[in-house]
Design goal:
Blueprint (H helix, E strand, L loop, with lengths): L2 H64 L3 H38 L1
Length: about 110
């Protein structure tokens, strides 16, 4: 091999190694950019999850404060049943009065 061929071989090896390193550098840059973008997306998703969890806990509290509980339902049912019993006694009293009126008219 002549001196010129050795220099050409070394030059071509340097060019190939430089090309490979350049490609590697660009790939690493894209990987870093993708990692950064995914980290930002993960942080925003985590913030959204925390917001939804807070809204859910507020809604649970609202439901617990607003809607009927078992004891409240039981109390309302007792009030309704008491009102029905009062109406029943009123109807019974009315029928007794009508019976008396009819008996008084028949005795006359």
């Amino acid at each position: 091999m002549t001196e010129f061929q050795v220099i050409a071989l070394i030059g071509s090896l340097v060019a190939v190694v430089s090309g490979v390193l350049g490609v590697w550098w660009r790939i690493e840059g894209r990987i870093r950019a993708a990692e950064t973008a995914s980290a930002i997306k993960a942080e925003s998703a985590f913030a959204a999850v925390q917001l939804v969890a807070g809204n859910l806990s507020e809604h649970k509290l609202h439901v617990a404060e607003t809607y009927v509980t078992k004891s409240g339902l039981r109390e309302t049912t007792e009030q309704i049943m008491g009102a029905i019993a009062d109406i029943k006694s009123s109807v019974n009293g009315l029928s007794t009065r009508l019976d008396r009126i009819i008996e008084d008219r028949s005795t006359r």
